């Protein structure tokens, strides 16, 4: 192997300085067309490809890219963000619909996109007014993790000053005497925990229950560590030492004070005292949140702490039949439903499976298996639990991830209209770092270590292709016996189309890889986004002039899930319908992108014509055949326009109403 790697160095020199170029992108693949149909255009040059002997993991991998795509909200000049819910909820940050509790998951997924705009725009948004500290989060760690994949120093350091300021603001949740952070569980995005329920005397638990939690302290540890590394990257050695010291102090306090010897687990301690609970007492049970420290590599490599993972494997403790329980069944108020919207159960963390913490726990397990010396968890455990998590994405034969699930049946609990295709978790990153085994690093080294077990019930073959890494394009292939790809058994790593390392069995491969300049970010600006209802740009239509319907076609959201309707819908049986956008001022425009839904309930039109208002009438600019469940492009010679209109002609004999999901103008 050493000889192979030495030989690889000369090959690497041929491409080390060359950035990943659009011309090197392979032709569209059957996988993209098959998975995404008419919407394949969005995915084709943006996502890494993945295939494997496990068809469920493969299907869920591509579905999770649909979730990423559906949750990209176009804010116009402000760029793109990712949303937690497909549509508006009452606690989002207006007018953008952002929620900072889910951002870490969003960016851990988006860092693997070949198109770097989405992560870059989102980070820009979060550090220019988009992070209101509504919830706890690992804000600096997101940025560092993204840098580990794309290697773009300028992007990583762009908001360092703001990140440092934001870190300081969290001092309002720092107990100086204890040296630990505390939070109300609701603001940790986990209402109805043991701490909040017991602090109410078992009567409720939506609010209250302030506690020193493993989660917020792990986040702040990760933030301090990331700020230390980013400061070092900027050349500020004094700040790097300062934040490294803060991270070390949090780590020491978490291990000393949040490790519960009686339960052999990291648990909350109360910040509050009342007639039900006492300050600094441990809570009276284990919760899944106790694994979050491993998500960020906080615990020492010590059997004393690794023993906690036994609880995750025990059916009597945190191992539900269908997934990971958030609280053990021995807890007095396990699975007691306190909160409803009407008759529908609402969100609680007293036992249900949550993809949110399932993702964090699996990420912690990946770290444990990759670089901890422990004998508690095996690779077979990881693959079994990842597969279990993948199955939660299905409702029958339909892929639709919701908010939480019953730990014994795997059926959704909340199931509200807002719950479809929920984005407060990850999966792509688990596949990339766990199954494929790519371990992102800050130095000029590519490291791969797939965490697959041996034996028959494993993944016999896989290929992950077109993975963006440090300005290059990486491919990782595994074939246990060589029978699938017919290139011999073993693990193979290629960079920019050249094979650079192999080994006969699963194991760690490291390859020197000087970083290249990442491809520049292209940022066309959509001028037809109405962030505030009633303001310009404004929608108008030939029918269905309901204000919310008009807004929905220019709200910056595009998806085609039939169970989550979105956009403007025609309201009569006319053959022709129109939808217009009034920009409030003349703008230079030369093209539109129109998204039309097509399913049993609604239809895409047969043809569309785009028109411009010239002050006295509508002038035709261009015509196209409409694309169902995809993007219809209409272009013309750029010119000034204050109003645009699309005239939509219904298919002859089709009684379904037209659904315009989104109207974008550039």
Walk me through the structure.
The protein is of the alpha+beta class and 666 residues long. It contains 19 helices and 26 strands. Strands 20, 21, 22, 23, 24, 25 and 26 form a 7-stranded antiparallel beta sheet that branches. Strand 7 and strand 8 form a beta hairpin. Helix 5 packs parallel to helix 7 and helix 9 runs antiparallel to helix 11. It is globular. The protein starts with a helix and ends with a strand.
Low-confidence stretches: 1-28
**What integer is the average pLDDT?**
95
Q: How far is the first residue's CA from the last residue's CA? A: 52 Å
Instruction: Please tell me how large the radius of gyration is.
Output: 26 Å
Give the DSSP E fraction (strand runs of 2 or more residues).
15-25%
Number of helices: 19
Largest sheet: 7 strands, antiparallel
**Shape category:** globular
What is the total tally of β strands? 26
How would you classify the helix and strand content by structural class? alpha+beta
Percent helix, as a range, is 25-40%
